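To close the chapter, one final illustration. This time we ask the reader to focus less on the individual chains and more on the assembly as a whole: which components sit near each other, and how the overall shape emerges from the parts.
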Amino acid sequence: FGFKKEMMEKGLVPDVFTYGTLVNGLCKGRRTKEAKELVGEMAQWGLSPGVVVYTALVDGFTREGKMEEVFETMREMEASGVQPNKLTYDNVIRGLSKMGRMEKACDLLKWMIKMGHMLDATSYTSLIEGHFKVGNKEQALHWFGEMKNNGVSPDVYTYSVMINGLCHCGGFKQAEHLLEEMFAEGLKPNEFVYSPLIAGHCRDGNVLLACETLDNMTKRDVFPDLHCYNSLINGLSKLGKMEEATKYLAQLQNRGHSPNEFTYGSLIHGYSKAGDMEKAELFFQEMLSRGIKPN
RNA sequence: CAUGAGCAU
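The assembled structure is written out below.
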């Protein structure tokens, strides 16, 4: 934004791309209020926002869950004769799904198909995630099947959402099955796929399987990131297996990660629950000394 | 110049 000022001082005129970049930056930083004002300002330069700028704005509002603003933006687009495209609608689907308005989200997706939009995994994945969010495993599975029927191949994002969703409703068996399916499809599972499995097995009380999962990913050349370790340490802490938990704490540090507030939160709760307040206090102090804020 | 995924209380 300093550059924008500088540009104007040098008499350079911002173009649609300048605004596009700025609007996008603001939207990513949860500053849609300012983004909207910026869009309003474009007219002063004789510029009118196109699909890209509007879509960035829609994206920003969906991130913040402001569906009313989304619809208002859509109306504004229509009023100024700008045609929304697939990306715009994808964002609306994601917004509706995030808000749990699944009937609307499904209707929109069906409508997109009818209108001949080429849907991809992104469109379906948002919808599937929404169904899991409202606890509707059946619909999630239904749309997972539907995307395949329509010739759209699930990608790593889709599988991570499916596996995460299934692990949250006790579908560990199906989750493991999908992991196999990924290999069969030639997809390489990443941290986003393994982490929910680890967390899920822990929640299930099956820490052994969780540890095995972490070891397996290492064997498959996927390096467990902090999320994976946190999931495991959290599971172990809840079961009071603090020796194991600290073992993985050491491993994570050996592999170049630094514990964060989640890691410490799990350890502190684990030790407190086990009645070892000294250790809990020790980790709390360590956390503070590393400049991590308690929450 | 613009879209999707995982961690504690």
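Residues 16-28 of chain A form the longest helix (13 residues). Chain A is about 70% helix and 0% strand. With these observations in hand, you are ready for the problems at the end of the chapter.
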